[in-house]
Amino acid sequence: MLTDFGHYPAWNAFVVSVAGPATPRARLAVCMQPSEGRIWRFRPRIVRFSEERELCWRGRVGGGPWLVDRDDCFVLQPVRAGRA
């Protein structure tokens, strides 16, 4: 699930697209669209990766007078009995 970048928009409302190899230290091409409507394009690098468990990237977003370093982590955790 974490490495199937084509399906990210199905479970993450902010992600428009992710492209690139799902390997440690790889550079990705990510498009996100937060609720205010402007699309953010950035090229984060994978900083933590554990197949089928965790994927974290770090990238710089912004333009004009501001830049923001952005870290995003996606972590899969087992569901406890009785939870859906």
Q: In a nutshell, what does this entry contain?
A:
The protein has one helix at residues 8-11, and strands at residues 15-19, 29-32, 40-42, 45-50, 54-63, 66-75. The protein is mostly beta strands and 84 residues long.
Explain the overall architecture:
The protein has 84 residues and is mainly β. 5% of the residues lie in helices and 45% in strands. It contains one helix and six strands; from the N terminus they run H-E-E-E-E-E-E. The chain has one helix at 8-11; strands at residues 15-19, 29-32, 40-42, 45-50, 54-63, 66-75. The strands form two sheets. A three-stranded antiparallel beta sheet has the order 1-2-3, with no helix packed on it. The longest helix has 4 residues, at 8-11. The relative contact order is 0.19.
* Count of β-strands: 6
Number of helices: 1
Radius of gyration: 14 Å
- Largest β sheet strand count, sense and barrel closure: 3 strands, antiparallel
What structural class do the secondary elements suggest? mainly beta
**Unreliable runs:** none
Oligomer state of the chains in this structure: single chain
H/E series: HEEEEEE
**Arithmetic mean of pLDDT:** 86
Primary descriptors:
3-stranded antiparallel beta sheet, mainly beta, 84 residues, 5% helix, 6 strands
Write the SSE topology.
Elements: H1 8-11, E1 15-19, E2 29-32, E3 40-42, E4 45-50, E5 54-63, E6 66-75
Antiparallel strand pairs: 1-2, 2-3, 4-5, 5-6
